[in-house]
Design brief:
The structure is a single chain. The chain is of the alpha/beta class. The chain contains four helices and ten strands, in the order E-E-H-E-H-E-E-H-E-H-E-E-E-E. Strand 9 and strand 10 form a beta hairpin. 33% of the residues are buried.
Length: 173
């Protein structure tokens, strides 16, 4: 759903053919062009990340206002805002974007639990399809083709970016 301030919520992920997005706290492939795609897509927007994902990156990503989701009320980190859940993160994002240019959006950058809990709020998914089947312990959540439609596909050298838009305005995945 679009946020009350009229902003879209977009999930941005890289997913292997078997749904894997992570292994042992890291990404089980190294494709610099996809890292650049993530940067280009999220730059200038509000970025929602889970605490583990943020800690794995090790710092706030430049050029983005970062909101970190954690249930640990005592957790904090320099340069980020903290929220306990997705609705609280979206409310905080609305505050951050209230005086921002209209083209700024809310981007969700993972991990798996954050993607899963943010899915009902998402308007769009931008998924880099990685043509690998690595072992992994973290997977992107399944979503119904009845509720999402592919609207664009961009084949790149080592991966393909696919844009999905929500078909129904109602909640659900």
């Amino acid at each position: 759903m679009t946020t009350p301030a009229g902003r879209r919520v977009t999930m941005v992920a890289a997913r292997a053919e078997n749904g894997v997005i992570g292994a042992g706290g890291g990404i089980p492939w190294h494709i610099p062009e996809d890292f650049q795609h993530f940067k280009d897509t999220t730059l200038g927007h509000v970025l929602i990340l889970g605490r583990t994902t943020h800690e794995g990156i090790g710092r706030p990503l430049p050029g983005r206002q970062t909101i970190v989701l954690t249930r640990d009320r005592d957790w904090s980190a320099d340069g980020v805002r903290v929220a306990a859940d997705v609705p609280a993160a979206l409310a905080l994002a609305d505050e951050l974007l209230s005086a921002a240019p209209a083209d700024r959006q809310v981007m969700v950058g993972g991990g798996a639990h954050v993607y899963e809990t943010a899915m009902p709020y998402a308007d769009e998914q931008i998924i880099s399809e990685i043509p690998l089947t690595p072992d992994g312990d973290t997977h992107y959540p399944a979503f119904s083709a009845k509720r999402w439609r592919e609207v664009r596909r961009d084949r790149r050298d080592r991966f393909t970016v696919v844009w999905w838009e929500r078909v129904f305005a109602c909640g659900g995945t």
